[in-house]
Inverse folding.
């Protein structure tokens, strides 16, 4: 058996970033992975401007009572400040040449003749937002390998960028084998089970931004499985299956991958989980998840998701999302050999955020995964008492 | 000024859930909000079945050496167990009538004549997964008002459900006013700024599952603004604008909403932020965000997002997502009147998760929001020292 971290590192080391990029307009770019640094070609703000509604002045002259020589709303181009005068100015408006401070209007007394007196000391530079203070021309505002969020697109717009260079979507082909599988909506005969893996895996891949090629259920023969693998490998960057990779299982995925490419079968010290297949078919990667839905779901969340993210060009794969939170449960019979990922939910109790665990941690059905919002990671043999801090992987 | 929580509660109290529902297939249901409890019509597992590869026996007879009377792979229908015999059985296979325990194969000695002896005590019920142990017929497996995640869809599939009843998408119309606004890709004259609000707001709404009607930039006249509001209110459930709702601003949103419907203008004790408009135009809700992008972004994240979620039928609006984390910074000049939402990032330091803040917390440009993965909430006047625990809203 090898550890979760060993497996994760091995998978990440094999993640070849897709090389093709494409240009998308900002409104289509959310969730995509940026393929080049975005460098600003302008200063933001573009000019020194006023942080207040008030008066632009020269600080050295501001002790006098001074006439107002011009009015500068936002969006206009000011004249140089006439000697011995002030300018009426509004928030965001460009500071006139020769002025070096803004006095807020609340600190100005307007005289009967329209000239103004200031009630406070005026310091050079006050209430001026400097050109380039937010973003300097030449600055990298978004980094290659970032997955683009809503605020990133607002930021790109703020520097005038209408489109971005992103990696093309990763193509992932999936299929499911097992004569016992029935699609939901069909009647299930005795001993048959519904194909639940398809219905969490396809949405999970789509939410990562993958283009999914869903080949559905493939007949449980070696020939059909080999054909499906070849077809999938021709269409996709990554081929994924669920099931057929445990010792003693009767279907043909293992033999078919070995015949069509190369297979590495892992026994991982993870619970739920354990078997994970990895390999190559032609130019495509192969990932074989365990067939049990809970095992498959946890293995995907802990190991495969980050491999796919790296494969898509994402630089940071969500380690920072892990949090330490106190358990509100006990766990007295740990697995002694395997790391265990308990399905937990973050709950508020007495104003504190604590972890509750789903009562039934068996790997029978996806109830625990649907209920949970995280996976609490336990080391082999780790007993949990209420209050113990556990690292939690978000789901 | 009113508090953030008062405003949030008021908005939530006015959130009328969309009443129309629609039926979608499972693979189209991720991110949608469930409009009715999903009740299982079957037991999972559907029969008592074996948790192991081994032998099905009657516990009272298991001390004997017993012949194997049948072989039961998964997916087949067993015969009642013949008296004085055992059945070879595999994981997931149905327990034959009259058997009441399974002995794992590692504890069975197969004799030369094919009969078996067990090396350990056999207890009635052992290694049997009971019918309905995971899900009982009649049980609610997904609750009305849940936003559907990948595992939920796997769970629905596991009980044979091919489609789900969900609320129709919320229609949100947006437009932007201000003659100083330029679309990215266009040259910006002196004093003009790029319309960044459109590019974070539209993706943010789409990611919530809203159907966005994007009316773009509307000319800065009262007539055009009133026409846009009327059109938007006819098309959408919610009309949103950015800007034009501060005291002293020169554009026409405020006057136009007052003319076309009713307007409630809030001064909220929130920084960045402060003005928020709320109202009605015909049957549509109106939300006017502050025009400053950072203020608008924070106001949306803290107040408006949950209103929209509730409006979409979602029962739980993400309070549980808030976490307490220790600050790795100091903050010595708090706003004395307003709650402050600092843009922070969760970082690992010495094996601990801590909060770093973006250096420039001004509301000039979206850099801080793009950089951040959370908003740390400070009370008015709250000074922060390193190590202080702060509640963090995820972005």
């Amino acid at each position: 058996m090898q550890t979760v971290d060993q497996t994760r590192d091995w998978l990440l080391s094999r993640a070849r970033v897709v090389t093709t990029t494409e240009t998308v307009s900002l409104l289509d770019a959310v969730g995509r992975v940026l393929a080049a640094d975005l460098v600003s070609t302008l200063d933001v703000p573009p000019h020194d401007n006023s942080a207040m509604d008030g008066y632009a002045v020269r600080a050295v002259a501001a002790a006098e009572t001074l006439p107002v020589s011009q009015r500068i709303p936002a969006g206009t181009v000011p004249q140089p400040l006439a000697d011995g005068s002030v300018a009426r100015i509004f928030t965001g408006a460009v500071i006139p040449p020769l002025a070096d401070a803004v006095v807020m209007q609340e600190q100005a007394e307007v005289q009967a003749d329209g000239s103004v007196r200031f009630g406070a000391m005026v310091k050079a530079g006050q209430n001026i937002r400097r050109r380039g203070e937010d973003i300097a021309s030449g600055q990298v505002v978004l980094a290659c390998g970032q997955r683009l969020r809503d605020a990133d697109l607002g930021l790109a717009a703020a520097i005038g960028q209408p489109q971005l260079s992103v990696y093309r979507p990763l193509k992932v082909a999936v299929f499911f084998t097992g004569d016992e599988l029935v699609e939901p909506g069909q009647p299930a005969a005795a001993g048959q089970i519904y194909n639940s893996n398809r219905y969490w895996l396809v949405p999970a891949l789509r939410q990562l931004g993958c283009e999914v090629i869903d080949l559905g259920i493939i007949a449980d023969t070696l020939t059909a499985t080999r054909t499906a693998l070849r077809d999938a490998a021709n269409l996709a960057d990554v081929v994924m299956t669920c099931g057929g990779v445990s010792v003693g299982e009767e279907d043909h995925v293992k033999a078919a991958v070995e015949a069509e490419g190369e297979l590495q079968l892992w026994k991982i010290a993870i619970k739920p989980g354990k078997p994970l297949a990895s390999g190559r078919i032609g130019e495509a990667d192969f990932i074989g998840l365990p067939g049990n839905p809970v095992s498959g779901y946890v293995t995907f969340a802990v190991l495969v998701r980050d491999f796919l993210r790296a494969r898509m060009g994402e630089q940071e794969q969500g380690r920072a999302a892990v949090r330490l939170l106190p358990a509100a449960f006990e766990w007295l019979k740990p697995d002694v050999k395997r790391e265990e990922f308990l399905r937990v939910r973050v709950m508020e109790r007495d104003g504190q955020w604590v972890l509750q665990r789903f009562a039934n941690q068996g790997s029978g059905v996806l109830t625990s995964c649907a209920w949970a919002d995280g996976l609490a990671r336990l080391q082999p043999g780790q007993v949990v008492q209420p209050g113990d801090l556990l690292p939690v992987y978000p789901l």
Notes: Chain B has seven helices and 26 strands. The mean pLDDT of chain B is 92. The domain at 322-394 of chain B is CATH 2.40.340.10 (Beta-clip). The CA atoms of residues 10 and 50 of chain B lie 54 Å apart.
